[in-house]
Design goal:
Blueprint: H1 6-33, H2 38-47, E1 52-53, E2 65-66, H3 76-90, E3 95-97, E4 99-100, H4 108-118, E5 121-122, E6 125-127, H5 150-170, E7 174-177, E8 182-183, H6 191-206, E9 214-218, E10 228-229, H7 234-244, E11 248-253, H8 263-272, E12 276-281, H9 298-313, E13 322-325, H10 334-353, H11 357-365, H12 369-381, H13 385-394, H14 401-408, H15 410-417, E14 424-425
Helix pairs in contact: 1-13, 1-14, 2-10, 2-13, 3-4, 3-10, 3-14, 5-6, 8-9, 9-10, 11-12
Bound molecules: 6-deoxy-beta-L-fructofuranose (LRH) and manganese (II) ion (MN) (2 copies).
Protein name: L-rhamnose isomerase/sugar isomerase
GO molecular function: isomerase activity; metal ion binding
Keywords: Isomerase, Manganese, Metal-binding
Length: about 425
């Protein structure tokens, strides 16, 4: 089943094919002068995939208000259709990452079947113990896995086990755990005891992890807690992964650090010590802004991918990070934002692949700071769009995915089918 007509994709591609061929040939010549085989880069890009977050296809919102768009997905089945649109056009997003209980998955068989029909699989499961589900016995107002009360911790553990069970039935192979636990005031909780309780709870979840699964803990500096957070940085995250065992890894959400933190270096460290589990890609200016990947600081995204390609090429032990987007869209059509974000990670990957690595190592050893830096800049400055577009087209996708999405009229179609949702104020003003 396809959500976007093959005829529309073919017609849109036909308009751009000629220009793409000559751009690709020209870039091929440029890269050949640097000793790089453009087709080899294209093959790697074509094999690259990033998961789409189910929660990303609906319009997000802020603490102040939410302004829903037309044709908002009503349920997980609608969300899956929107995710399929992104994959059909980009050919880079074959899996969806679910969030429980935001995604109400009463009929798992039907969901799996629908995914298969759309050519979509299921990526890491995300648990949610940072908000209360209707009717739940114990509140997470004062924490979940690190809560002072054992029954509340147990409830949070059981929720995570349930997420594993759901994921097993869908073919997922990983669980991502992010908790909002922390405090707003000095003295509100004991740092050490909170972390001990968290570790014990995570160990109980870990015991229920199937052998072929991985568990990712996700750190975040602050928010919703504003004074201290239990899993606040990569150091704590690394300790967690070490304490839990071989199936436990650290997840790096690009928006979860202080401004100016050297994230690519965190990535390198986690790779070096075999604990990089995966990413939540997004971009930010101030905090956990969840903006479109690569929209604010594409150079930083490139530097992260530079580390990833470096690890891939030197075959770093145990290196197999999961790639996922994690964004919130307030002023754009979420499908368009996710399309361009998926292409942005492909772009950063392609740019990472064309770094002249042997030359770079030479400059580093010679302490030639300027040429080392220029080597990275040369790769970053190269417009690799023809590689991405060619890879998409050859895989049946669109040369220009956003233009093709608009030409297909998908948003108008679903706006007619799905009832409009009222906007609303946030929790505070
Ligand atoms: C927390 C977070 C985490 C959640 C998602 C909705 O800020 O990044 O990954 O699951 O947002
Ligand atoms: Mn995240
Ligand atoms: Mn976040």
């Amino acid at each position: 089943m396809s959500m976007i007509s093959r005829d529309v994709i073919a017609a849109e591609n036909a308009k751009r094919e000629g220009a793409l061929k000559s751009d690709y040939a020209h870039l091929g010549e440029q890269l050949a002068r640097r000793g790089i085989d453009i087709d080899a880069v294209k093959r790697k890009v074509a094999a690259y995939a990033v998961a789409v977050p189910s929660w990303g296809v609906g319009t997000g919102g802020t603490r102040f208000a939410r302004f829903p768009g037309a044709g908002e997905p009503r349920n997980i089945f609608d969300k899956l259709e929107d995710c399929a649109v992104i994959h059909e056009l980009t050919r880079a997003t074959p899996t969806v990452s679910l969030h429980i209980p935001w995604d109400k998955v009463a009929d798992l068989g039907a969901l799996k079947e629908m995914g298969a029909g759309l050519g979509l699989g299921f990526d890491a499961m995300n648990s949610n113990t940072f908000s209360d589900a209707p009717g739940q016995e114990h509140s997470y107002k004062y924490g979940s896995l690190s809560h002072a009360d054992a029954a509340t911790r147990q409830q949070a553990v059981e929720h995570n086990i349930e997420c594993i069970e759901i994921g097993r039935k869908l073919g997922s192979k990983a669980l991502t755990v992010w908790i909002g636990d922390g405090t707003n005031f000095p003295g509100q909780a004991d740092f050490t005891r909170s972390f001990e309780r968290y570790l014990d709870a995570m160990k109980a979840i870990y015991q229920n992890l199937p052998d072929d699964w991985r568990i990712f803990s996700e750190h975040k500096m602050y928010e919703p807690a504003f004074y201290s957070t239990v899993v606040q940085d990569w150091g704590t995250n690394y300790l967690i992964a070490r304490e839990l065992g071989d199936k436990a890894y650290c997840l790096v959400d690009l928006g979860h650090h202080a401004p100016n933190v050297n994230i690519e270096m965190i990535v390198a460290r986690l790779i070096q010590f075999g604990k990089l589990g995966g990413f939540h890609f997004n971009d930010s200016k101030y905090g956990d802004d969840d903006l479109d990947t690569g929209s604010i600081d594409p150079y930083r995204l490139f530097l992260v991918f530079n580390e990833l390609v470096n690890a891939e090429e030197r075959k770093a032990e145990g290196f197999a990070p999961a790639h996922m987007l994690d964004q919130s869209h307030n002023v754009t059509d979420p499908i368009e934002s996710l399309i361009r974000s998926a292409t942005e990670v492909c772009r950063a990957y392609a740019q990472g692949l064309i770094v002249e690595r042997a030359a770079l190592a030479g400059y580093q050893d010679d302490n030639d700071a300027l040429m080392a830096s220029e080597t990275l800049k040369t790769a970053f400055r190269t417009d690799v769009e023809p590689i991405l577009a060619m890879a998409r087209q050859e895989a049946g996708g669109a040369i220009d995915p956003v233009a093709t999405y608009r030409a297909a009229g998908y948003r108008t179609k679903v706006a007619n089918e799905r009832p409009a949702i009222a906007g609303g104020g946030g929790g505070i003003v």
